[in-house]
Amino acid sequence: MVRRTAGTRWQDKVNSHLERRLQLRVVRATPVPRIPVRRPAHPKIDRLIREPVFLCSSVRSGSTLLRAILNSHSQIHAPHETHFRRMQVVMTTEPVRQAMTALDLNVRDLEHLLWDRVLHRELVRSDKELLVEKTPSNVFVVDRLKTAWPEARFLYLIRHPYSVARSWHEGKPEARSMERAIPYTRNFMEHVERARQKHPGMTVRYEDLTADPERQTQRICEYLGVPWEPGMLDYGQHDHGEFVAGIGDWRDKIRSGTVQPGRPLPEPGDVPEELHEMCRVWGYF
User: 10: how many CB neighbours lie within 10 A of its CB?
Assistant: First the structure.
């Protein structure tokens, strides 16, 4: 028990006790000011890529398959997951903060410049015209992406919610129980749906893509404003980099180089109740 002593602040007494017993000290945290996320002040010079396309989906929804198909098009570059939004800018000295303030660039502006430069480098290296980026965690920052690139377009890829959860579980069954897989994947799917409601784009069902890839890729090409190319479907004849865990699907199905049939849709009675609402929203029930 810590007793208050006359003439001594009780907070100091508590800290003295914590330091003796636990080598801990309580300090008042200084609130971190919120840094605004802003549209580019000068779009023509602030963005090297004006109209990136973001493929938004949950994990285990077939986004690596679709990116390989799109990357097989002569005008479309769809790289592996770049995870670009995880790159941050840190201004480490007061002079650099002063300099950027004079340039009217905050940390978020600088991050957008960095992200844009990385994606532009990828596009230029490919010698193609249109970039499609498919990192699934982008669904958590769609509003920021639309602010950073006001002319960005969105492709939404959806799949039966229970198939998504089962596929994620089966990727590492010893570490990913179904009890964990359901809320984990549902979080992604709910963010995809919020993005669909707020930011118009084109929606493709994984089941339709695998059942009739020609028709679905024709629809996508029409949306993107490029001619359809039959060679897109034979994606194994093109170089997409190595399929490795962490930046996309890596299993035998994607390595086959051709579109494989999707798994049968689950029976409604087999679907856990926690996924019923997503199934209704996406038209599977």
Answer: 11
**Structural domain span for residue 7:** 1-29
| Contact of 155 with 195, CB cutoff 8 Å | no
Low-confidence residues in the chain, pLDDT < 50: 1-2, 4-5
Degrees to nearest 5, angle at CA 184 with 179 and 188: 150
213-228 tens-digit pLDDT: 999 999 999 999 999 9
Cβ burial of 141 (10 Å; 0-12, 13-18, 19+) is middle
Q: How far is CA 114 from CA 121, 156, 162, 181, 254, in A?
A: 11, 25, 37, 33, 31
pLDDT tens profile 47-94: 999 999 999 999 999 999 999 999 999 999 999 999 999 999 999 999
Cα–Cα distance measured from residue 159 to residue 189, given in angstroms and rounded to the nearest whole number? 9
The mean predicted confidence, pLDDT, of the chain is 92
- How far is it, in rounded angstroms, from Cα 15 to Cα 237? 66
* Residue 89 forms part of a structural domain: no
174 and 218 assigned to the same domain: yes
The answer to whether residue 35 is domain-embedded is no
Global pTM reads 0.86
Hunting for tokens 């990727």 — which residue is that? 171
